[in-house]
Every structure is written in C-alpha cells, then in structure tokens.
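fyi for ur records
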Amino acid sequence: MLAAAGAVGAALFGFIGQARATIIGANDDTAKYMADGGAAYFRQMAAIGLKRVVLTVRFDPSQPTRIPDQDLLDPAVANALAAGLQVALTTYPYPPRMLATGRSSPAAFAAWLAIVAGHYPLVRQFVVMNEPNQPAFLRPQFGNTGLNVSAAVTGAYLAAAYDTLKGIDPSITVIGVGLSPRGNDDPHAPSNVSTSPIRFLEALGRWYRASGRTAPLMDGFSYHPYPVSANDPLTKSYLWPTAGFADLARIKQALWDAFAGTGQPTTLNGLKLYLDEVGWQVDTTGEPGYSGVENVPVTNESTQAAIYGDLVRQSACDPGIAAVSFFGFYDDGLRTGFQSGLYRADGTPRPSAAAVQQAISDTDVAGCTGVPVEWTPSTGVAGASATGATFDTGGGDVLFGTSLDFAVTANVVEGAAVGAVLEHAGPPPSILSRLLESTRAPVAVSATVEAGPVKRAHLVLAVPAGLPRGRYVVSVRFVAEANPQRTTIVRGRSFTVR
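which gave:
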C-alpha cells in the first residue's frame, strides 16, 4: 500500500474543508515520467494556485490484477499529495478492442478498481471511463440496427464501479464519464464513428431507466469542453447536439432529460460538473523543445491567456461547476500531441500561467465577479418558433374530407419533430366536445427539424371527414428529440370548414 505521512493527510483534508467553490487544476501525466516523480512539478502547480491534478491509470483486461505503471504512479501520487493537491485518477478499460471482443467486463473492472482504491487510500476522486462516445476509447459505438450501444456499456461499467468504490468508502467521489464534446452520430461514417454528447446522454438515461437500477451511477459528471477550434473565443457555441463551454446549459438539460425523477441526481439536486479536460492550443513555431508538424489550427499565447483567465472567472460564477482542469500543465513536445499547457515543453511559463494565477487569486477572495449562472430545466423545446403555416384553401374555406398541404418555417435550438395540431377556434358546443378532443393530438408529423438556421418543414394535414362547420386553427407542435415529454405548441393560421 502506498505510504503517506500523517502530516500530509492532515494537511490535505484541512485544505479540502476550506476549498473554493470551483477548484482549478490540470489534467497531465507528465510528472509520472520525471526523474523526481514530479516533486518540483507539483510544487510549481501549487505555487500558481492550482489545487487538483488528474492522473491516468488504465485497466488492462489481460492483466486484471495489475496496476499499470505503478512504479511511476506511486511517486507521482505521493508527491502531488505532499504538494497539497487533490488527486483524481481517471480509470477506464483499454485498449478498446478488449471491449469490442468481449475480453473486458464490468465485474473485472470493478474488482481491479478495488485494488487501485486500496493501494491509494488518500485518493478520494475516481473518474470512471474516458470519452466513451469516441471509438478511440470504446468500440463499437453502434449496433447492427444503427442504434447507440456504447452508452449501455458505459452504464454497466459505471454501475459496477460506483457500487464497488462506495462499498470501500462511501466518501469516495465517483465521477463519470469524461465525455467528449464531439460526435458525428453516423454508424456508417468513413472514419471516427462516434456519438454526440447529447445523444449519448439520452441513450445512457434510457439504459438506466430500463435497467431498474435505483442507486446512482455517479456523484459528479466529467466533461471535456474543448473548443471546436483553438481560434474560437470562449463564448463560441457548438451546433446541437454537441456542446462546448458556452453550451453547458445544454449539458445540464441533457442530464435532466436523462435522469430526472430517478435515483441518479441531476445538477438540480447534487450532481456537480467536472470540466476535466479543456485547452486552447497555441503556436509553438521557433520555440525550443518541440518537434514534428502542427496538425490543427492554433491561437497565440496572449489570446490563450485571456481565454484561460476568463474561463476561471466564469466558472466561479456557475455553482454547478465543481472543478476545471486544464489539459495540460506542460505541453507535449511532439506537435501531434497537445500544446495547450500553462507551461511550454521546456518548463518555461506562458502568459496563461500568470493569467490563471491572477484569476484564481481574484476569485478566491471575491468569488464570482461577473453574472451568476442560474439554470432551470426547460419543459418545452428550446427556441421553438414557427411562422408561415400557409396553405391554399380557395379563399379561406375548405370542404369536408380534404387535405391541407402546407409548409411551416420552423426554428429550434435543438433537434425536434414538428407536426400539426388541429383545434376549434372557439368554445365548441358540448355535443362536439368528444369529436374535437380527438383532433387535438397531432394528426400529421412528417418532418424532423435539426437545430440551426430556420428550416421550411413540409406537413400534410388531413381534415377529418365529418368535421363540424366552423372556424379552426392549425397550430404547430414541436416535440424535443432528447425528451418527448418536452413539447411546445405555437398557435398558427385559422380557416373555415363549410
């Protein structure tokens, strides 16, 4: 078992009791490969105000009782704790072919986690799974029918891990699932067959509800809100159903849609967000310590510094965010890796190190200095609006048994089905109530509207034969893709039946 001095443990737990609302840290395994086990490296982290480090340890199903790189991880964990940092271990089965071929199992993974937790008793946070919506970490993403299967696999691993870790110590924080902000939702894509985060969470919630499980899966939700491009500002939104830092409300809504009313808390009743990987890559042209050719768009160091400072300050205003971890603390020296650190590959500080240090200092003293984030779940379809429910009725009247063939200009912020609702324009006589009630449900749903620019949706509405004469209204009904219980009805055009 990893030894730790009592003084270190006391200092650690004393610090945790005084922690700020949002902990700032780094996700970086560099220290594991340093000659001194990262002792100076972790002191450098602590000196600029970072308070948490996320380290990786993978489960190898071919060696189910072994802690990979334990000789490197032991001194790194001890040195991080000695520097006063919280340590979180990101754990997941790897390589993904082990899952694809059935050589890994939730039970074996949970048994291995018990070994890891027993060996590192002062590690109080475990992130379970890593970007399981990406084929680089979990395959397959989709089954033969084209439906997502990676969420169900993730759910089974999370459930086994949660029960095992809580059985060892109920105070351990179990964090799932390290979700990627990207995904193409295309089982037939020529490459990177992946699942978008919103649709992954919908599938995970569906699995959880069908499983009959009443215990939670996680205490916190880990998310990786990288920008689409390093040239994007912090405020730049992703297109639905993906999500970046500017779209965290979308993630909170997806968690609520997936788990509201179940044994798994949402951000409304205790689930916290851990932004465990986030970074803007910068230009390293001419800098010492780098090799290879850059393979992605990059920004400059001053822009990165401004974004990182804003990220810290804005996170302090969101009570739903427990921690933010930059990826990484030091750059990778090979340019096909990541160059988004607070320090360059040679260990010299970037302007972002000072910017983050100042932002941490400011928010530690003053807390939120901007607009506090308040979020409540939507019960309708986000952004739903409709205009132009137009059709040719020959002067405004229609005959019994005819059909209305019309188009509607629909606008939504999320994916939704759009259909038609036929209603009487005024209070109907009681003798007609039953007939009219039967026509309040959608009588035509022939379009799906993706989020984004305004779309023209084509609908066909059959006017029921025998519909009493009078004035009627054709309204537009939106049903959220992520949760069919969320609907919005927009009142539309009226016409006369004669």
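The radius of gyration is 27 Å. thats all i got for now
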